[in-house]
Amino acid sequence: MLKFPSMWLKNASLGDQIANELRLRILENQIKPGEVLSENNIAGQYGTSRSPVRDALKALSLDGLIRLERMGAVVLGMSLDDIQELYDIREMIENFAQQKVSKKNVRLLVQELRQNIDKMELAAKYDNHSEFAYYDLLFHETIVRHAEHKRLLNLWNSMKPLLMSVILVTTERVFAQSAEHVHWVVSKHQRIVEAIASQNDGLITKTVGRYFDDSKHTLTESFDDVDRPK
């Protein structure tokens, strides 16, 4: 059973911590579509008042993972189509961000991205899927931040909590396949760095497109057993 990594929860409020853990359990089908979540029960599980639980449930509602009702929160879950749509938006964000950064001096960005890849490779060496996932997400967020576009960053941040759980689940399943598959994921990130370093718009677009085509295939393999109730 996957647990939300403590390093991902640093500086998070209690409500955010609860939301992150519930979000992961829903994506993993530990909490199934159709189940009803009770504020009182969750507060008891976490030894807290209902206030941070209420905040957590509001966040999950905004994600579309639950529907708030008077008698509790009904779990909707997340279908493969929902996850693919999330990645459609992510692809648009990252393609735009990479086009933006390519117009600037990319030396420091390329250096920072290569350091992230080094940390991913170290995590792979020690078979640490959660640390690998952490630096994977940080790699992409670094590009978005270097674009220096406030509204783009706001859009990224609104998706980030859900992305964290999706990437954590997919990375755990990639690690379960083979070391070769993990190294293939690393090589995809290396190609992104090479494209950014080239500052060639056409190569960037092609590389981003290929990256997300591959990622959507991985999503299909990781989430082919999830769907909303009929």
Automatic annotation (TrEMBL):
Molecular function in Gene Ontology = DNA binding; DNA-binding transcription factor activity
**Keywords annotated in UniProt:** DNA-binding, Transcription, Transcription regulation
Q: What Gene3D superfamilies does this protein map onto?
A: GntR ligand-binding domain-like, Winged helix-like DNA-binding domain superfamily/Winged helix DNA-binding domain
Record Pfam families: FCD, GntR
- Give the HTH gntR-type domain ranges: 12-78
Q: InterPro entries this protein is in?
A: GntR_C, TF_FadR/GntR_C, Tscrpt_reg_HTH_GntR, WH-like_DNA-bd_sf, WH_DNA-bd_sf
Q: Which SUPFAM superfamilies match?
A: GntR ligand-binding domain-like, Winged helix' DNA-binding domain
Under SMART domains, the record lists: FCD (SM00895), HTH_GNTR (SM00345)
| PROSITE patterns linked to this entry | HTH_GNTR
Its recorded name reads GntR family transcriptional regulator
Name its species: Sporolactobacillus terrae
Q: From the UniProt record, report the name of the gene that encodes this protein.
A: gntR
